[in-house]
Amino acid sequence: MTTVRVEQGDITQSDADAIVVNLFEGVTTPGGGTGAVDGALDGAISALIADKEITGKQGETATIHTFGKLPARRVVIAGLGKRERFNTDVVRSVSGGVARRLRQLGAKRAAVIAHGAGIGGLDAGDSAQATAEGTLLGLYEFKRYRSSSNG
Known about the structure:
By secondary structure, this protein is an alpha/beta fold. It has helices at 32-40, 44-50, 88-105, 124-139, and strands at 18-24, 61-65, 74-81, 110-112. A 4-stranded mixed beta sheet has the order 2-3-1-4, sandwiched between helices.
């Protein structure tokens, strides 16, 4: 069973299996929670942006290891797309994709910043609600008619 809890705190201090930060398309210098994580990782996110390995396009994800620089083992960077098209539907969609990526990584616990709260113009509560909804929808699997023979 999936449990979602909303907490306020410093994302860089989370001891979850993975932490999730975000990036709008076109951003060259991460700020907010993403900037704090970037600083703790000695500019690793900024380097990926500079090398165009991450662009912030909606639905894009990148995973980097922290190698002990943070309590969490991994950081997942989620692309939020263009800022002018950003809304709670984007948060739901991105959160679903991130949840599936975290499941692929085997993460049991993840800490996620409030996507778009502040710079994206969303209220933190609306962002948290959309994140929870997207996460639960992204992890949903209908298995009623599956058997071991048809996967």
